[in-house]
Automatic annotation (TrEMBL):
Protein name: histidine kinase
Catalytic activity as recorded in UniProt: ATP + protein L-histidine = ADP + protein N-phospho-L-histidine
Start and end residues of each HAMP domain: 164-216
One GO term describing the cellular component: plasma membrane
MF terms in GO: phosphorelay response regulator activity; phosphorelay sensor kinase activity; protein kinase activator activity
Gene: cph1
Keywords, alphabetical: Kinase, Membrane, Phosphoprotein, Transferase, Transmembrane, Transmembrane helix
Amino acid sequence: MNLSLRTAIIFATLLGLLLPSGVNGYISLTRQLDNAQRQISLDHQRIADILVLGMQEPLWNLSPDAGKPLLESVISDERIVRITVNDSTLGLFIEANKPERRRGHLHSLTRVVSKQGSNIGTITIELDDGNATTRIRSEQRLYLAAVLLQIVLSLGLILLLLESRIIRPLAELSRQAIQLARRELDEAFVWRRSDEIGTLGQNLETTRKSLKDLILTLEQKNLQLETDILGRRQIELALRASQDRYRRLVESTHIIPWDANPDEWRLTYVGPQAEALLGYPLAQWYQEGFLSSYLHPDDRHHAYRLFSETSKTGVSEFECRFLSSSGEEKWVLLTASAQCDANNKRTLQGFIIDISERKQAELDMERYRNHLEEVVEARTRALASANHELEAFSYSVSHDLRIPLRTIEGFSQVLLEDYIGSLDVNARNYLARIRSTTHNMTSLIDDLLNLSKLTRIEVRCQNINLSALSEEIVDEFRSLQPQRQIDIQIEENLRAHADPKLMLIALRHLLDNAWKFTERTQDAKISIGANEINGQTVFYIQDNGIGFDMAHANKIFSPFQRLHSHTELTGNGIGLAIVQRIIHRHDGRIWAKSQADSQTIFYFTLPNKPLADHRLPH
């Protein structure tokens, strides 16, 4: 560290006076700050525990309004700046923000909200420590004021003593040193003091005299050097042309420099790399007519272009082929420019760049492109053939498999009607099982055909009313089972931008599941509605039926995956797979939440909607 004498003395004196009190004050204030931060951390953990418990039910039921009272109660703490509640699937769920409370350092704590072994969301709490540190900062200001007062008093006393004996003499020494630096050597430096500073001043006067004599000597030497420099400039001009040629050679060793005489069509210089390029010795390159002799027959017209046209246009660049000593074709990029030498005689200069690998890559790319076109054409034909075979197979399944099933079902019916008196109870039971199995097989064939058709059906989206479609399906279910007493609530005017035919199929399967799974439930209830989460409409169908274990939630949308036995409920286990394909065809998402023997909620989104609101005006 380079310090002036005055600064060093003041710094050392003040440091000795203030270091003990500064260390004691720092330790005391640090201990107070640690205690305050420890208390803030404990309060932060306690608030987070309260919010984790209080937000389980709102997150599980996707009800932001249910969590707002607790959020408003907690945000009343003046230290809390922001609380964010996120749903694990939908993102931001609910938020409270008080940015004006931020005064000091912001502490953030994030906790996971779980229910029934699943992570359903996270809670983030940001807490400000400004109020807790205000008192400590006040004590810091008082302590700083006391230290500053002590510094001022000490500084005044030190300056009073230093000014007369050290500072003024040093200032005079500094002024005289600046005169030496500026070469102002005519004024003599007079010192009559007998102390150390006086001795330094006398030495400075001796230095002034020596410098004055030295500068006179250097000026004489400088005149002699200027004469030598003029001679060296002439030598540099002679070397510059040669240096430029070899600089190009050294900097670009993979590029071959060359010079040529356009009047004689002959190379006057070529880089040593040329020998490795074609396999000919360098002496052969300098022969007259070398380019026209060893260019490819189809590219020999470029020799005229090089030597004749370049001399007129000044610049030329083209690709051509050389024949190597082994008979191999070498593709090169040949550049040329016309120059005038000191005698105003035109010469050609340029570079030869080997581009054989690039040309080979272009040829390979062209062949690969043609191959890809053939492959695409073959794949297109194969795909068309596969689609034709799939249609033929679907027709075979629809037509050929139904005939034997109808035959089995018909003969079973004849046996039951014509021979009812000759059949015992077991025989009638067997025939009834045969008819039930044929009906199930027919239903399975229909479901498989519908599932295969979904990927080929064109989606034609329009503005539709999901509430009206749901009411139409519910009316159909009530007409088939008028004895069922079930409470069905459908939110009015639910709008979406989707294909009405496909959404009718999806809603029918979802409502059919809810209708079946509440069959054995007392006070059965089905709800159809929508929530707005982060600007996205999330539709839901909820029932209080038998539910399922969430551990098997990843299986419910797979074909033929049933979470309940055939003895409990009917069905082929393909309905939800059809629903998922329909929702995915609309670029949407579908998922479920359930509790065994309690309730089931199916959520789905339909993002392809141009409407500003998902509800019709009343």
